[in-house]
Specification:
The structure is a homodimer. By secondary structure, chain A is α/β, with parallel strands linked by helices. Chain A has helices spanning 27-33, 46-62, 81-93, 108-120, 134-140, 178-195, 197-204, 207-211, 215-235, 250-259, 267-285, 293-303, 315-322, 352-361; strands at 2-8, 13-20, 40-44, 67-71, 101-106, 126-131, 145-150, 153-160, 165-169, 335-340, 343-347. Chain A is built from 14 helices and eleven strands. In chain A, strand 10 and strand 11 (343-347) form a beta hairpin. The longest helix of chain A has 21 residues, at 215-235.
């Protein structure tokens, strides 16, 4: 088992991210080792519960924890204030006090929703994240961002709230659909490109082991990404500086998602296309002298069945959509561009023509 | 104008509490002096708005701030998730971004509700408190507790979230009903009894000036309480240690409120009775050798028209209700008892008979 310690000086808080296989059946013991006391409530959804709820509850019972369960239907639409409100009702009616520990067992939706409830019930109760998708393990469970959606926009109601423990059991990846694995891989390679050349090279040289969900290698992959993201979060908890680098690939990615009304691309697929485009832009702009890793990235995308071209979408519309992005401060788009493999920078003045040319190279019209 | 600086090391945050008369018409300038940028939204209620909204908006406009207004109906029942949700809708629909500043203009209900929205909209936006009741000026606006009520309990959904500025304009006390002034006075004398003998003596020797809302003296009263509470909050932001002392009078106070279904006593009145009872208990228990300040407290209560006896309520029921209090950890009641004027301690093992005897001395049956 790998142990990564997040030390957040801003909040005088430290917590562990535990990564390995066979961890869910040890949860009760791990909670005890981390001095957690109190009643426990597990928030999960039926898709995840069918596989992992029983071993989790067994383990909690064996360690002497009383555990309640709230199941939320599966889907982004349930990451809402209404669903949070139902969880509050359950907590209040069952008289859970401020020493309660909320366990989020699931992917990003469950983690964000349960995290928001933990942040706000009785002004904050204990939170343990057990992410069960690759995307949640390498991305959303780290950094303390919790939120629910507003009908008019994603993550508009939320908080920064750190968990007391993250348990990433890579065994859960065995039941993860291929397209969900691919979505996580987009963030994995992103971490490598912007901050760690070595990690990128190691990960992309063992794609077969990833597709097979080899536990030892997946633990290496998840731990590597956690270390990179944890470093960024420690240095910039509230996203005022270098945390912006994590938006690499997300500028055009968001634009593609919006333009196609979130129906054509999964988030990871859109981000992958956004990264490919950003690398091309960086070469054209002149800040990236050489981009041999472009081919590696393209091969990776293809081997996970992800698209590498943007056929049919108008380049002009993709660019127009960029301006509406919430991260476009004062009407300026903040581009994250690689300057070499393992290093990226923020660039704000890119000619529109240059971006549209790149999009057309990739199949846009 | 008095300026008290709260330095919260836990959150690397510092903010000012400004106290004086004629401050609301200077709000725009004060915001500018504190380097606040962005669009402004004022949350208030019609009772407060009739007096203070126009001068506030004038002042904001004069300083170049664009300001929206959301009015919430007057009353504790509107400190709800539903009302917070309506404010989110307004903010989203009018495209307020993460640089928005929310101004809470009103008493504790407005401060708590607007504070909760500020804590959670886009993971936290700027918050300025302009408390307009004595209770809010000396108590709820300081310390960063924000919350909404759940149908089954007060303040069950909330956060710790510090404002960027507090502006306490004592002119607002001129329109405050007498019973509301009295409610604030209960907290004022509480601060003196538990932490500052001198403050208690000065305040209780000038009751006439308080009843007249003399601006200079009210500024002294508010500043004194703010200093005491700020000291406590700085040392114990999340209420794990000495912040518990602020619950002096609240143990029996809450019990009296619950037992009478919140219809007989205002919060301040119940706290006043709780303090009188706690002093009597302290004498009987032996931790308080001499309680000459009991008479001063009783005189103060009477001069503000507050009850000093508990006729008709059964002592046994009052005690039983104590056990259901959310602060009774592991079934133990944590009493805050004075050991001399200006100093209090936590006591957990008080005989039931002793407490009931005191309640009967005060008129309980």
């Amino acid at each position: 088992m790998e142990r990564i310690r997040l030390n957040l000086t801003e909040q005088c808080r430290t917590y562990d991210i535990l990564i390995g296989d066979g961890l869910i059946p040890k949860t009760g013991m791990l909670l005890k080792e981390h001095q957690m006391k109190g009643r426990v409530v597990v928030i999960t959804n039926p898709t995840v519960a069918q596989w992992y709820l029983e071993p989790l509850l067994k383990s909690l019972a064996a360690a002497g924890y009383e555990a309640g369960v709230v199941q939320v239907p599966d889907g982004e639409v349930y990451k809402s204030l209404e669903e949070a409100s139902k969880i509050y009702d359950f907590l209040v009616e069952s008289r859970y006090d401020r020493k309660t520990i909320l366990i989020a067992l699931g992917g990003g939706v469950i983690g964000d929703l349960a995290g928001f409830v933990a942040a706000t019930y009785m002004r904050g109760i204990g939170l343990v994240q057990i992410p069960t998708t690759l995307l949640a393990q390498v991305d959303s469970s780290i950094g303390g961002k919790v939120a629910v959606n507003h009908p008019n926009g994603k993550n508009l109601i939320g908080a920064f709230y750190q968990p007391r423990l993250v348990i990433s059991d890579v065994d859960t990846l065995k039941t993860l659909p291929d397209r969900e694995l691919a979505a996580g891989m987009a963030e994995v390679v992103k971490h490598g490109i912007i901050l760690d050349e070595n990690y990128f090279s190691l990960v992309t040289s063992e794609l077969e082991r990833i597709r097979e969900r080899d536990p030892a290698f997946m633990a290496f992959v998840v731990a590597g990404s956690c270390r990179i993201k944890a470093d960024v979060v420690i240095n910039d908890e509230k996203e005022t500086g270098i945390r912006a680098l994590l938006n690499f690939g997300h500028t055009i990615g968001h634009s593609l998602e919006s333009l196609t009304q979130y129906t054509m691309y999964k988030h990871g697929e859109a981000v992958m296309l956004g990264m490919l485009a950003a690398i091309r832009v960086a070469v054209r702009f002149g800040c990236l002298p050489q981009a041999s890793f472009y081919d590696t990235l393209e091969t990776t995308a293809k081997s996970f069945g992800m698209p590498v071209t943007i056929p049919g979408l108008p380049a002009r519309d993709i660019y127009d959509m960029l301006m509406g992005d919430k991260k476009a401060e004062y009407g300026k788009i903040r581009w994250i561009l690689p300057v070499r493999l393992g290093k990226a920078e923020i660039v704000t003045d890119l000619p529109r023509e240059m971006v549209e040319t790149v999009l057309r190279e990739m199949g846009a019209v």
